[in-house]
Structure formats: structure tokens, C-alpha cells
Amino acid sequence: MKPSVYVTRAIPEETLAALRAHFDVEVNPDDRALSAGELRRAVRGRAAIVSLLTDRIDAELLDAAGPGCRIVANYAVGFNNFDLAAATARGVVLTNTPGVLDDATATHTMALLLATARRLAEADRFVRAGKWHGWAPLFFLGQDVDGKVLGIAGAGRIGRNVARKARAFDMQILYADAVRNEAFERDVGARMVDKETLLRQSDFLSLHLPLTGETRHYIDAAALSRMQPSAVLINASRGPVVDERALVAALRAGTIAGAGLDVYENEPELAAGLAECENVVLAPHIASATRRTRLDMGAIVARNVIKVLGGEAPDCCVNPDVLRPRG
Ligand code: GLV
Ligand code: GLV
Question: 224-251, pLDDT tens digit by residue?
């Protein structure tokens, strides 16, 4: 009998075909995220689960899957939906999809930055509403991007990719991270600074931090108050890295000038008042949403599941302790 793999929501057909070549694959037939209870029932007895960032993978879920479950492969690079310790304690390998979505995510980050600086979403609404009466010298003035300071919070693969793209706009790069990256500094002329300096000196501040206990509300009311009134905040990482209610208050008060957001604290809900702010560009968590990228993410997912169920180590394990021999 082939091992049983459960996929919590439809992903590209090519990925499902790669999995079906080796396993019995069942896919959630509904195009919606399952509730925790539905998920627990669906995963019972599975050898592998392909999960989404909207699925909470914790002790309860893993116990519901049972002792035969060997891998949960996230169809995402972020993995804050995983309880790493619970999986490690149960010998379950957890994987993500790093690398293949850096370009798509960084390009989307730049799109948000440019759109926010040049008020593109607001301008689009204006034109569609029939309010435009022709060219005027002081009409719809936005912000310069060229030569401005881009602050990168979190200089991982995606943050560094954004910085490289921003160099084409002659942006000066500052970054804050736990570790210094001299190759990155040479590559884009970036300068490492502390968080305080990053907040105070960035014309545009872009967040590329994983969501952890420490990064939750990295941008809170106090952080916003240190930013320049002309500053723009960009977030295509995880919503809870920003205190969204504090952000709405800051946008209303003019503490900062604008924000470009792809992610939200309580998706798909928005904080009260956010949608009414003209100076924000809002995207529905689509930074990696290109056809090629989603196929490449699927290829990594399939490879990880095939390797782990075949007794090999996966390409990208986010709880590597689980792979160490047990004493
Ligand atoms: C998307 O948000 C991802 O983590 O892949
Ligand atoms: C603007 O359209 C210009 O020609 O300056």
C-alpha cells in the first residue's frame, strides 16, 4: 500500500501529479482553509501532510495525525504556523520552500514601495471615479524614491534581494539584523545599523523578518513614533510583525506618511480604519503569487515529501534537531 498524503488545499496540479506518482494523495476538495477540527479529522493516519500558512500545525494536530506521520511540508517559506517543538518531540520533520520565491516577493515589495510613494492605488481610484480634470502642476504629488534611504529590517534572502532591486533606483541601503553580512554590504553598499537608527533614518522601511515571539509587533506605536513624518512602511513579511491598530493611528495622525501592505495581523480581516486610509496600498497576501513561483514552491514540497517518506533527509528542514540521531 502506498503511503497516504493529505494536502490541505488545492495546490498546482503539477505538484499533485508529482506526489501521486509515489503516494496515495487526498486533497481537500473545497477551495477554502479547513477549520482546526476538520483538519484534525482529515489528517488521521497520514504519513505526510502538505500544509498552508493558514493551517496551524501543533501538538493536537500531530497527535490527531498519529505516530505514522513523518513530515509536514509547508507550501510557504514562512512557517510561524508550525509548533516546532511539538513536531520535534514527535519525530515529525517540518519543511518550507525557501529560495524560489525571493524574486517574486522582492519584486512585489518594490511594487508596493513604488505604488505607495507615487500614490498609484489612490490615483487609480481617482481616475476610475471620473474625478480627473486634466494635468496640473501641483496635482497628485508623490514622494521621490530615487536616492532615498531604504531601511531593511531582516537581511535574509528576501531582504537582500529587495536591496539589490532598490539599488537600480539608487536607493541607499541601511539594514538591521542579528548578524552582520559583509558580502551583502559589499554587494549593495549596505550599512548595518541598530533598530533605532533604522527607524529614524529610513525614508522607506521594509520588513523582512520571520514572525517569532521576538518579532511580534517589531513595529509598534513606539517604533512608529521614531520614524520620520515623511516615511513609508512596507510589509510583505507577516502581519503581526506590525501592530496594525497602532499603524492606523499613526497613518491618521501623520506620524508616518504611508504604508504598503501585503500582510495583516488577522487575515483576511483588516484593522478598523485601515481601508479608509487613502495613504495605504493594500494587497491580499500575494507576494509570491506568480505561476512560476507557485510551481517552484510545489516542486520543493513534493521533493521534501518524497525524500522523507523514502527515508532520506529533506532539502530544507526547519526543525533540524529532528534529523539528529536520538540517544
Ligand atoms: C508566504 O507568505 C510564504 O511564507 O510563502
Ligand atoms: C509631463 O507630462 C511633462 O511633459 O512634463
Answer: 999 999 999 999 999 999 999 999 999 9
- 235/246 same-domain check: yes
- Are the C-beta atoms of residues 248 and 265 closer than 8 Å to each other? no
**Separation between Cα atoms, residue 285 and residue 272, nearest integer Å:** 18
Q: What mean pLDDT do residues 138-159 have? A: 98
114 plus 245 within the same structural domain = yes
Q: What is the pTM of this model?
A: 0.95
Question: Are 136 and 262 within one domain?
Answer: yes
**Whether residue 231 has its Cβ less than 6 Å from ligand 1:** no
- Annotated catalytic residue within 118, 167, 267, 303: 267
297 within ligand 1 shell (Cβ under 6 A): no
Is residue 108 flagged as an active site residue? Answer: no
Does ligand 1 come within 6 angstroms of the Cβ of 117? Answer: no
Q: What are phi and psi of 300, to 5 degrees?
A: -65, -45
Residue 8 and residue 32 in contact, taking contact as beta carbons nearer than 8 Å: no
- Domain that includes residue 35, residue range: 4-100+291-323
Across residues 84-113, what is the average pLDDT? 98
Digit-coded pLDDT (tens) for 295-314: 999 999 999 999 999 999 99
Residue among 101, 211, 293 whose CB has most ligand 1 atoms within 8 A, to mutate:
101
Is residue 316 helix, strand or coil? Answer: coil
- Active-site hit among 70, 238, 244, 294: 238
What's the Cα-to-Cα distance from 242 to each of 40, 130, 237, 246, 252, rounded to whole Å?
30, 35, 10, 8, 16
The verdict on the CB of residue 76 being under 6 Å from ligand 1 is yes
**Cβ within 8 Å of residue 138, ≥6 positions away:** none
